Amino acid sequence: MKAFILDRYGSKVALRAVEMTDPEVRDDEVLVEVHAAGVNLLDSKIRKGEFKQILPYRPPFILGHDMAGVVVRVGARATHFKTGDEVYARPSDPRIGTFAELIAVQEKDLALKPKKLTMEEAASIPLVGLTAWQALVERGQLKQGQKVFIQAGSGGVGTFAIQLAKHLGATVATTTSASNVDLVRSLGADITVDYQKEDFETRLSGYDLVLHSQDSKALDKSLRILRPGGRLVSISGPPDPGFADQIGAPWFVKLFTWFLSFAVRRKAKSLKVMFSFLFMKANGDQLRQIASLLEAGHVRPVVDKVFPFQSTNEALAYVESGRAKGKVVIKVRQWDFLSAKP
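Now predict its structure.
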C-alpha cells in the first residue's frame, strides 16, 4: 500500500511517501480501504514530538487520526461489520495511521458512516466529534439551560462543539475573529467575542462549563469566569494525574503530570471549580450516536479544504497555519503517488 510516514520527530520534518506492506489484520480488527482522512493539530503536535514522553510512538510510523472508507476484510472475531460497509473511525492509540491506503482498525472503534455524508465530510468528524462529545457530555455533563464557553469557535473542535452544545440546549459563547462571526453564529453561537479586540473575561461570567483549547493565559481567565461548582475541560493541557491513569502511564509519568498541573489544580480548588485534562479516546459507540445526530441534521460537518493525498504535507502545513475554518481533509483515493513530494 501507499502511505506517508514520519521518519523522525521535528517541527520542520516532512512526511515521506512510501510503498509498504499491507497491514496485518488481527482477530478483533477490520481492514479498511481509506477513502479520506482528516488532518488535525494533534498530528502536528505528535510530529513535533510533544507527546513522545507519553504516547508510545517510535518513528518511523504513519500519522493520521481519523478516516472514512470501505471495509475490505474482517478479522475472525469481528462480527459487526462486513465487506463493503462504509465506515468511519478515530483509531485507538497506538494504532493510528490513516494517512495510508489501508488501515487495520479495532472493531470497537468503528461505526457505519452517516449515509448522507460524503467520504470527505465523514472523515472530518471522528476526532473533533468525539472530543466535543467527551468534553461536553461525558466530562462536562452539560444540560439544557446551562452556559458553556467554547474557545476557538471556528476551529475543528469548536465548529462541532458549538452545534452539539446547542443541540443539548445550552447557551453558547465563543471566541473568534470578526471574519468568522457569521460562521459561528450560523452554527448556533449566542455570544461571540472578537479575540483580537476584546477580553472574554470582561464579558463572560457565571458559566457552568468551559471547553479550553488555548494557552495558559486563557486557561487562567477561563477558571475565573466559571460559577462555583463549574467545570473546565482542557484539551490543550496541562495533562493531569487523571490522564496518566487513563493511559496506564508509569509512576514517573504520573509524577510528571502531577507537577505540570499542580498550579492550575490549586487555582481551580481555590475558586471552587473543577479542572480536568481530556485526551480524546476512540469510541465506536459514541460515533454511532454522533452519526444519528448527523443524519438528523442536528449537527453538520464544516470542511474548509480537501487536499489530494500527494499534498498531505501541504494539508498539514495549512492546519498549522491556524487559518482553517472547520476541518481539513485529504482525499486518499485516485492520487498520483509518484508525484508526491516531501
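Residues 238 and 260 are 6 Å apart (CA to CA).
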